[in-house]
Structure formats: structure tokens, C-alpha cells
Inverse folding.
């Protein structure tokens, strides 16, 4: 790739991918979406654990120190994380739903 191709590109990663990866470049948006989903999932569970530890040290109400017995997850902390980011979660769901619909109905 030369400098002019990079400067004229709308999406540099896709231009680079077409030059280097060839037809595999069409999998990049799907892989990036899966990485973003995994990061959101990990952030949700990490935030729940932070609430649990904060409650154990007395910084938060004691209810957040509870752990769900079957799955060993801090369920009150996770619910707190989801409820505090409810509108962001709705936006994510809207984006993911529209992305899957566009993949299904394209063609």
C-alpha cells in the first residue's frame, strides 16, 4: 500500500485487510464485534466483583457482598452494574440486533 491509497481510504483497516488478507477481510467486522461483546461481558462481571469486594470491606451495603450459590457469581453486584448502565445496555442491544438483521437480510 502506498501513501495515497491510505490517505484516500475511508476505512484504513479494511483497505489494509483487502491488500494483505484478500477475501478473508470480510470476517474482520464479525471478529471485531465478537471481541467487543467479550469485552463488555468481562467488564460486566469484573464490575460485579468490584461491588462484592467493596461491600466486604464496608464501602457498599452488605447486600452486594452476597454470591449466588449455584454459579458462584456476585448476582447483586451484576444487577447493580446492569441497572446503572441500563440505557447503555439498550443501545448495545439495539446495535447488535440491527447488525445481525443487516447480516441476515443482506443480499
Amino acid at each position: 500500500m502506498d501513501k495515497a491509497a491510505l490517505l484516500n481510504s475511508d476505512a484504513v483497516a479494511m483497505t489494509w485487510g483487502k491488500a494483505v488478507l484478500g477475501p478473508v477481510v470480510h470476517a474482520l467486522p464479525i471478529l471485531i464485534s465478537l471481541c467487543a461483546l467479550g469485552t463488555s461481558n468481562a467488564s460486566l462481571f469484573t464490575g460485579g466483583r468490584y461491588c462484592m469486594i467493596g461491600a466486604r470491606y464496608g464501602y457498599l451495603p452488605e447486600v452486594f457482598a452476597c454470591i449466588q450459590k449455584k454459579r458462584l457469581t456476585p448476582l447483586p453486584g451484576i444487577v447493580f452494574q446492569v441497572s446503572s448502565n441500563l440505557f447503555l445496555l439498550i443501545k448495545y442491544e439495539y446495535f447488535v440486533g440491527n447488525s445481525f438483521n443487516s447480516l441476515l437480510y443482506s443480499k
